[in-house]
């Protein structure tokens, strides 16, 4: 139904459910209302993410997304202060819901995504929106958009063509890209809690003050540092290179923390003997360091997977693709309460499973295309042609492994044959003119 109606629907109902939560009289009522509040919050996150991506030019998409992430981080840093000021949880619930009243103004401020309207062939609505833009910007319709409105008027009779995410099943490359990013987001958000649990456990052993606020700000600070690091890394290495780097860091931190430092290999016997002589406190410090690195890199993996999906998924199904990746991230977060069951007996097994997933993801990331400074795909054929490029550019004179269409024609000799046929036709024409 579009980005704008989903946003308005979600904002209205999160206000209703959020304010009703403050009036809960028992645990059942509280849990049920909180579930629907989170349901509406997911709609807000999804619709705003899609709108941001579709409104920005290619060179500014990542920058605007990171600005939104920093604003989200600022909200996380303010939450404990609000909790300390409000004292009562019912007052706190009302305070954190009231700012959503300002989001009702989005219906007036933000129009529907013109990119989505054009991609789904809603040309009548597109024409009205373009005319609104020209009127607000005081543009001359005849000179500035000459030819656009008449073309839209010709196509107005065509019926809108909306596409369901199920259509991805019939594609060759698009479904593969979405599945890879779903597994990446699940692994990134799932293993993040493994690192956090390990770090908090070692802090307790090291007799550091085990305080809720200290733990909360530690995790929020690591997430902020991860966002800051993503800016230069993604700007220099691109989306795929940055995701690969952070996934490798996550895998290394995970494997080292699982005890690979204590493996008994003959070639490293002297080194291992030194390690076995370490005190438990030193080993705990190493494990805590690996946990911090793992939390740092896994947060970047999860965030980049969502952003990557938003860029390579076509406009007609961008909401569905983003929904799948965000749902996978949510499923990864669901592993956190599972670890709390049965006195954390399954914690080590969870960590081993996610560590294996990181190794699989490293290989799968190489199958993804690079979307840096690329136009957004509009329909499924556009997304299907978003194919993989080499991770490193090939040198001059070196034959690339993956050929483009033009290079493939050159390699197969089609251009040469075409040139020969053109030369033959020109000679024939010239001989005919001479005979005449």
TrEMBL record:
GO molecular function: transmembrane transporter activity
GO CC term, one of those recorded: membrane
Keyword terms, alphabetized: Membrane, Transmembrane, Transmembrane helix
Residue intervals passing through the bilayer: 7-27, 33-51, 63-85, 91-110, 216-237, 243-265, 286-310, 316-336, 348-368
Subcellular location: Membrane
Gene3D superfamilies the record matches: MFS general substrate transporter like domains
Limits of the Major facilitator superfamily (MFS) profile domain: 1-372
Identification of the protein by name: Solute carrier family 22 member 23
Superkingdom assignment: Eukaryota
Originating organism: Eudyptes sclateri
Membrane topology: Multi-pass membrane protein
InterPro entries per the UniProt record, alphabetical: MFS_dom, MFS_sugar_transport-like, MFS_trans_sf
């Amino acid at each position: 139904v579009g980005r704008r109606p989903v946003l308005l629907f979600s904002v209205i109902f999160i206000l209703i459910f959020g304010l009703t939560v403050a009036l809960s009289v028992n645990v059942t009522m509280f849990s049920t209302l909180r579930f629907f509040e989170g349901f509406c919050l997911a709609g807000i996150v999804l619709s705003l993410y899609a709108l941001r991506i579709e409104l920005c030019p290619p060179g500014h998409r990542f920058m605007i997304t990171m600005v939104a992430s920093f604003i989200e981080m600022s909200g996380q840093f303010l939450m404990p202060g609000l909790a300390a000021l409000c004292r009562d949880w019912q007052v706190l619930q009302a305070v954190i819901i009231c700012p959503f009243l300002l989001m009702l103004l989005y219906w007036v401020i933000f129009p529907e995504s013109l990119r989505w309207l054009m991609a789904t062939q809603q040309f009548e609505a597109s024409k009205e929106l373009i005319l609104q833009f020209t009127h607000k910007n005081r543009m001359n319709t005849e000179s500035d958009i000459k030819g656009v409105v008449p073309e839209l008027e010709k196509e107005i009779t065509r019926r809108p063509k909306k596409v369901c995410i199920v259509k991805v099943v019939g594609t060759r490359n698009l479904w593969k890209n979405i599945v890879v990013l779903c597994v990446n987001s699940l692994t990134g958000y799932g293993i993040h809690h493994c690192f956090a649990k390990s770090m908090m456990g070692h802090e307790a052993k090291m007799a550091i003050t085990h305080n809720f606020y200290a733990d909360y700000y530690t995790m929020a600070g690591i997430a902020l540092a991860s966002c800051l690091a993503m800016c230069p890394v993604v700007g220099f290495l691109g989306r795929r290179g940055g995701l690969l780097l952070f996934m490798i860091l996550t895998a290394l931190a995970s494997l080292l923390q699982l005890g690979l430092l204590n493996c008994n290999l003959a070639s490293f016997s002297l080194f291992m003997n030194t390690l076995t002589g370490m005190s438990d406190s030193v080993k705990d410090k190493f494990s805590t360091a690996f946990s911090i690195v793992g939390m740092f890199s896994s947060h970047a993996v999860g965030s980049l997977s969502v952003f990557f999906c938003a860029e390579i998924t076509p406009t007609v199904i961008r909401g569905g693709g983003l929904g799948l990746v965000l749902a996978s991230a949510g499923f990864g977060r669901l592993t956190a309460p599972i670890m709390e069951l049965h006195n954390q007996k399954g914690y080590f097994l969870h960590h081993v499973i996610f560590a294996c997933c990181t190794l699989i993801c490293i290989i799968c990331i190489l199958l993804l295309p690079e979307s840096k400074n690329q136009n957004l795909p509009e329909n499924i054929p556009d997304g299907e042609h978003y194919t993989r490029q080499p991770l490193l550019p090939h040198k001059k004179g070196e034959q690339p492994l993956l050929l483009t269409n033009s290079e493939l024609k050159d390699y197969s000799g089609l251009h040469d044959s075409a040139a020969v046929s053109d030369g033959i036709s020109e000679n024939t024409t010239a001989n005919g003119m001479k005979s005449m």
